[in-house]
Design goal:
Elements: E1 15-17, E2 26-31, E3 35-42, E4 45-50, H1 61-69, E5 74-85, E6 88-89, H2 91-95, H3 102-111, E7 114-123, H4 135-149, E8 156-158, H5 165-174, E9 180-185, E10 198-202, E11 205-216, E12 223-231, E13 237-243, H6 251-259, E14 287-288, E15 294-299, E16 302-303, E17 306-307, E18 312-316
Parallel strand pairs: 1-10, 7-8
Antiparallel strand pairs: 2-9, 3-4, 3-5, 5-6, 5-7, 9-10, 11-12, 11-14, 11-15, 12-13, 15-18, 16-17
Length: 346
C-alpha cells in the first residue's frame, strides 16, 4: 500500500434523518462529537486526514504514536478523534489542539490526550483495499483486526455497533451516543464522498434564551439577527449566540418591537463583539435590549459557553420568566456508551 492512495479515500458521509431507519439491512453506531479522521499507515509512515482532506497528523502526536505501535504495518482506518476530560468528551479541548505552536500541542497531548475511535476498515494489514466490500464484511474484519492489534494502553479503540434497534434507541434516548445515532446499510460498499446508505439521527435540542440585543441587516434598517443570552450561576446574562432565522415578512413589526426595548447594557456578563479570529467590524455593532423577551431556539452543539453554530428560531415564549433562562438548560450527558472505556493511559 502507498500513502498517496489516501486521495482515493474521502470519508463516506451521512444524510440527516428525523428517525432511526428500521430493517435487517441497518447497523447502528453512536454519533461521536469529535473530528472525523482517516488514518493511514504504510510501515514507518502514519498520516491523519480530516473530513475536508486537511492534514491532522501534527496536531495529535499521541494518536500517531499509538497507530505506529500497532503490530500491523499497513492499514487505512476510518473513525473519530475525541478528547475526554473529567469523564466526558470535550469538543473545546479538541479545538485547542489546532494550534501553530508544536510545544503547545505536545503539552496538551500529555495533559489531555486524544483517542481515535475506529468504526470502519478501508484497507487491511496486507494493504488490500476493502472499500468494495459490504459494510457487514468490513465490520467483521475490523472486529478481528481490533481483537488482534488493539492493545490496552494504546489510544485506539473500536466503536460499538449493533443491529439491535432497541439498543440503538436506548443510546439515542439516554444521550450516551453524544450527538445521536448513525445508521449504516450493511449491504453496501464504502462510498467515498457520498451520502448514500448512511444516515445521522440527532436529538432535537432546544433552549429558552433571553434576547439581550440584536443586529440590523447589513444594507437595511431591519433586524437581521437576535443576540441570545443565558444567565450564569451568578445571575449575569452571558451572550451565548445568535439566531437569524427570521421570516422577511416578520422583520418590520419585530424591528419596531425591538426598538421600543433598546436599553443598555443588554448583557451583564459576557457581551457580543469580543475579540476573536472570526471578529469583523460588524461584530461590535449591536443594539442592547432590556431582558424582557424570551425566544425558544433549536441548536446542535453548545460548547465553550456558546452555541457552536447559529440556532434556529422556533417561537416566542411570553409565558417564560427571563430569569428562568439559565445555563443549566444546555448541560447534557456526554458520557461514553456502556462497555467503551476511552481513558486508556499512555
Amino acid at each position: 500500500m502507498s500513502l498517496p492512495l489516501r486521495t482515493r479515500y474521502k470519508p463516506m458521509e451521512a444524510m440527516p434523518a428525523s428517525e432511526l431507519p428500521v430493517g435487517p439491512e441497518w447497523q447502528y453506531e453512536p454519533k461521536w462529537d469529535g473530528f472525523r479522521c482517516l488514518a493511514f499507515r504504510d510501515h514507518d509512515r502514519v498520516e491523519l486526514m480530516s473530513k475536508a482532506s486537511k492534514p491532522l497528523t501534527r496536531y495529535f502526536p499521541e494518536v500517531v504514536s499509538s497507530l505506529s505501535r500497532l503490530a500491523a504495518k499497513q492499514f487505512v482506518l476510518d473513525g473519530e478523534i475525541v478528547v475526554e476530560s473529567d469523564g466526558i468528551l470535550s469538543f473545546d479541548q479538541l479545538l485547542m489542539r489546532i494550534h501553530p505552536a508544536a510545544t503547545r500541542i505536545h503539552k496538551l497531548s500529555e495533559s489531555s490526550p486524544a483517542t481515535f475511535i475506529v468504526f470502519d476498515f478501508l484497507a487491511d494489514d496486507k494493504g488490500k483495499s476493502l472499500v468494495q466490500q459490504p459494510l457487514a464484511e468490513r465490520r467483521a474484519r475490523l472486529e478481528r483486526f481490533a481483537k488482534r492489534y488493539f492493545k490496552p494502553g494504546h489510544r485506539i479503540v473500536l466503536s460499538p455497533a449493533t443491529r439491535d434497534l432497541s439498543l440503538a434507541q436506548k443510546w439515542f434516548h439516554m444521550g450516551v451516543a453524544l450527538d445521536g445515532v448513525v445508521a449504516k446499510r450493511i449491504d453496501l460498499p464504502y462510498q467515498s464522498g457520498t451520502r448514500t446508505g448512511m444516515q445521522k439521527i440527532k436529538k432535537q435540542r432546544t433552549a429558552d434564551c433571553v434576547v439581550g440585543g440584536f443586529r440590523y441587516l447589513e444594507k437595511k434598517k431591519e433586524v437581521g439577527s437576535l443576540l441570545l443570552g443565558l444567565y450564569d450561576d451568578q445571575g449575569k446574562l452571558d451572550h451565548v449566540g445568535f439566531t437569524s432565522s427570521i421570516h422577511s415578512k416578520d422583520r418590520p413589526a419585530l424591528t419596531r418591537k425591538l426598538k421600543a426595548l433598546i436599553k443598555p447594557p443588554g448583557f451583564t456578563g459576557r457581551a457580543p463583539g469580543g475579540p476573536s479570529r472570526w471578529s469583523t467590524k460588524r461584530s461590535t455593532e449591536w443594539e442592547p435590549l432590556e431582558p424582557k423577551l424570551v425566544a425558544e431556539v433549536q441548536f446542535d452543539h453548545f460548547t465553550g459557553g456558546r452555541f457552536r453554530h447559529g440556532t434556529k428560531f422556533l417561537r416566542w415564549r411570553p409565558d417564560k420568566d427571563p430569569k428562568q433562562c439559565t445555563m443549566r438548560q444546555v448541560k447534557r450527558e456526554n458520557r461514553s456508551p456502556p462497555g467503551l472505556t476511552l481513558s486508556a493511559k499512555k
